[in-house]
Design goal:
The chain is about 45% helix and about 10% strand. By secondary structure, it is an alpha+beta fold. The strands form two sheets. Strands 1, 2, 5, 6, 7 and 8 form a six-stranded mixed beta sheet that branches. It has a two-stranded antiparallel ribbon with strand order 3-4.
C-alpha cells in the first residue's frame, strides 16, 4: 500500500472503539467520498494488550484507534529511513544523467492546449528524458530493491535530507487528511512544493490533537 493512497480521518476523543470505522465513513461521505476502505495495517501500535480499542488490530498494526495507542514516532522514523535508503539507490541509478523536468511541467503544457500538445506528447516528452528513462528502466527490473516513483522527481532532486524528511511527513497522514474540524486537506497537484504545503498543514493539525484523539486510515479508488 502506497502512503500516498492513504486518507487519514481525525475523530473526537469520545468516539467509541466499535464506532470508529462507521463514524469516519460518515464524515467522508459528507465530502462525497463513498468508496473508502479501511487501510489495514497503516498504523503501528504501541501495545497488544488494549487491542479492543483499536480499529482492525493485527500483529503490531491497526487501521486506527486512539493516538496514545498508536506509535506515530516509529512510523515516521521508519518511513524516513526507507525514503533515505530509496534516495541513495536513486542517486546511483541516475548518476551522470542530465537534470530532468518533472511530470507537472509536461502536464501543465498539455492542460493549457490539449489539441496541440496531446496527452501522448506529454507522456512521451516526460518519459524520454534520460534521467526518467533510467528510473523507468530500474522500475522494470523484477529484482529491484524498491520502486523509484517518477512523480517524486523534483523531491529526489531536493537532496537526501529533504527526501528523507518528505517520508517522515507522509508517514501518518498519507496522501489526504480529514481534520477534526471537517476540512479535507490534500495536495491537489503533483508539484513537490504543493505536497509540502499540504503535509505541513496535516502534521501541524496532528500536533494539536490530544493523546485520546482518534485516527482512522482509509484507501479510496
Amino acid at each position: 500500500m502506497s502512503e500516498s493512497s492513504v486518507l487519514t480521518v481525525c475523530l473526537p476523543t469520545a468516539t467509541p472503539a466499535d464506532q470508529i470505522g462507521a463514524a469516519a465513513a460518515a464524515l467522508l461521505a459528507t465530502h462525497g467520498i463513498t468508496d473508502a476502505r479501511l487501510a489495514s495495517g497503516h498504523f503501528l501500535t504501541r501495545t497488544r494488550w488494549r487491542a479492543g480499542r483499536l480499529l482492525q488490530p493485527g500483529a503490531g498494526v491497526a487501521a486506527g484507534g486512539p493516538i496514545g495507542l498508536l506509535d506515530l514516532a516509529r512510523m515516521r522514523a521508519g518511513l524516513q529511513q526507507r525514503y533515505g535508503d530509496r534516495w541513495q539507490i536513486w542517486q546511483q541509478v541516475v548518476a551522470g544523467s542530465p537534470a530532468a523536468r518533472p511530470w507537472w511541467h509536461f502536464y501543465d503544457r498539455y492542460a493549457a492546449d490539449p489539441d496541440t500538445y496531446t496527452w501522448e506528447h506529454a507522456r512521451h516528452g516526460f518519459a524520454s528524458q534520460p534521467r526518467v528513462a533510467r528510473m523507468l528502466t530500474y522500475n522494470a527490473h523484477p529484482c529491484r530493491q524498491t520502486d523509484l516513483p517518477t512523480e517524486h522527481l523534483d523531491a529526489f532532486d531536493a537532496g537526501l535530507q529533504a527526501y528523507a524528511t518528505y517520508g517522515w511527513l507522509q508517514a501518518v497522514p498519507g496522501g489526504r487528511m480529514l481534520t477534526l474540524d471537517g476540512r479535507l486537506l490534500g495536495p491537489g497537484s503533483s508539484r513537490y512544493s504543493v505536497h509540502l504545503e499540504f503535509l505541513g498543514q496535516a502534521n501541524v493539525h496532528l500536533q494539536t490533537l490530544a493523546a485520546g484523539g482518534v485516527l482512522a486510515a482509509f484507501t479510496t479508488g
